[in-house]
Amino acid sequence: MIKNLQKFFLTIILFSVTFAGSAAKSHSAELLSRGRSVPMAISDDTLVTAKTFSSLTSRVLDIYSIDSNSGIFTKKGEINSPNPMAGDDFGFSIAISDNHMIVGSPGFNKGHGAAYLYKKINEQWELEKVFENPIQSVNEGFPHRFGYSVSLTDDYFSISSPFYNDGLVYVYSLNSSNSRLSSKPIHSIDVRNLGDVEGCYAEGPNKFGFGISTSFKNNKLLIGSLKDFVHLIEYQDGIPFSIDIPNPSIDDDSSAEKIKFGESVYVGNKNIYVSALNADNGRGKVFVYPFLNSSRTDENPWTNPFIIQPNTTLDNSHFGYKISESGNKVSISTFNQRTIYNYVINDLDKLELIDELTNSSSKDYFGRNIILTNEFLLAGDYYANKFHIYKNENQSRVLNSSFSTAGQIVSIRNKIECVNGFAGQFACNEIDLMSYLDKTEIGGSNSTSLNDIWGWTDPQTNREYAIVGMSNGTSFVDISNPENPSYLGRLPTQTSNSTWRDIKVYQNHAFIVSEASGHGMQVFDLTELRNISSPTTFSNTAYYSGFGNAHNIFINEVKIKYNLKNSQICVAGFSQGCMMSINIGLTSDENYGCIVGFSGKIIDKKNLSERITSKTKILLIHGDLDSIVPSNFLLDAKDFLIREKVDVYTKLIKNCEHNIPVEASSLALEFIKKNINN
Q1: Is 610 a member of any domain?
Q2: Which of 64, 211, 341, 355 is deepest in the core (most CB within 10 A)?
Q3: Measured between alpha carbons, how far is 25 from 28 in angstroms, rounded to an integer?
Q4: What is the pTM of this model?
């Protein structure tokens, strides 16, 4: 048992949940996170769903036939990606209309993206045409995600690239003749060329998210974004007529751009629907517009919509994530609250709430996708690997059946050599793939997220172990035989699950912190991993409750191991590691040799100013195209450090995103050489 924790660790860096969320996320990350749903599309007697899947495989589409009279859904077959590759996200988006189906694959070719058009011939779905990203060159730091959103109507279909600059949507003509079906779009909508949006894209790539959602019905295409407006286009004989629908809150709320107006859009037969998922502390709102021709010049209907927001929504539930309309009924789901709100369009053309559908046994992702028909309400349950079918009966919904969306777990237990830049289907650079274990094989489930990994070598046995941070705790894997790793067990989280967990090892103990409320620090004796023959649920060796939650933990192990002075050490870090390095370096009892920070910022300047005890020289390097931590934080940090009388040197790297290019690492190495006292 450890009796004195203080002698085993020197410094713990605490970050608030608010900071961790803002620093770690970009709009790009948020767009991807919002895509965690069960993709579904329905038309007449056909339902198409995408399986949840391992990152090592491509998705598979399930095809169901529907008997509306009996309410029976029967699986008829599957569709595999024509060009399967790991992470291609085949089926991330699906749209179906009559005898055509368009399937998006935004992860294809390292995120360059692709889309596939299928045609139903003799009750079989056959690939009619492959649509590649019209923009052939792609910056690997910012993949376009062509195919992120697809939509389909009788005569046209659309494919979006919300990650290309500030977003681009392509419209194609749908023709039943293969010989006449063109791979070239008839219309390309670039947000930078629209109306009064100057300056919106000046903040950096991926800030606008134009095309994050699309909806196509009756030749009317509605395009969502993350800013001040959505774009409506009506095609009449191939000629587009368009109008911008502005954020109705923009004049009343100085922070209106933060409500994510347009992150979800839907065109119904009765109304046009636009959501604002972040409105009112994330409770969310849906703006409902009467169904009008886009050629109408009267702007009043576009500035005075009906506003829908149930009283029972909670903060960060994000009401309006998915919307579906059928006849005079409307269903609207949340992103996080496990609830689907069902409405009827009354005689005044307003939405009247009739009931709330909650799946109490589900995780928070129930309702991540919904489809409403006259007979049924379909609800995706992402983390349960299911979708549920509810029968519409009068003013209520009755569970009819549920179907699995689980894909096959894929493990790799044998070495795959890196040959010509690929280890099997995975890109590599002189590194072989030794093995792969799915998270469900190391103590997790489909709902579990992975967030950190550390390692330990047993000094007695020389066996090697991977220590994996997961949202539900910490897992231990014996990797002594890298071609056949063995799961040994897990240490459950101290309090609740959390996306954020960090692990460090000192000697034979693992020290574990988390952003879960009241988590404190778990300490685990790694020698317990010896002689484990079957997966075990472990307990803490010791526990430190001197703080609540922490984003990261730092142990100055190197200094102790090699008996170094601070002057012989340079503290360096990237992104949040940069922020930690600045805090550690400036609050030490004696100066370090230097501090090097890449792509970071100063956090809690007032608090740091009060704790500064050293004047260690600092080099800060930042990319001018950084969208994760914008480059303006470089100047902000420089100004703060100069006022604190700290020697600071800065370098802004041109055409650099949130990464460390060769130029930056070379500058850092020279700075370290000059300032380390050997």
Answers
A1: yes
A2: 211
A3: 8
A4: 0.71
- Number of domains present in the structure of the chain: 2
Per-residue model confidence as pLDDT tens digits over 56-111: 677 899 999 998 777 799 999 999 999 888 778 899 999 998 889 999 999 888 88
- Dihedral Cα 189, 191, 193, 197, nearest 10 deg: 150
Length of the chain: 678
Q: What is the radius of gyration, based on Cα positions, of the chain?
A: 27
DSSP secondary structure letters along 294-320: TT----HHHHS-EEE--TT--TT--TT
DSSP codes of every residue in 462-512 = --EEEEEEETTEEEEEE-SSTTS-EEEEEEE-SSS--S-EEEEEETTEEEE
CA 183 to chain centre: 30
What CA–CA distance (Å, rounded) separates 109 from 85?
A: 8
Last residue of a domain, one of 497, 531, 555: 555
User: Tokens 């969306």 correspond to what residue?
Assistant: 405
CA 103 to chain centre: 20
Q: How far apart are CA 557 and CA 552, in angstroms?
A: 15
Q: For residue 87, what pLDDT is reported?
A: 79
Which pLDDT tens digit goes with each residue over 129-166?
999 999 876 555 567 889 999 999 988 999 999 888 78
DSSP assigned state of 5:
G
Q: How far apart are CA 255 and CA 269, in angstroms?
A: 32
- Which two structure tokens, joined as six digits, stand for 417? 């050599």
Domain boundary among 555, 570, 602: 555
Tokens at 73, concatenated: 């859904």
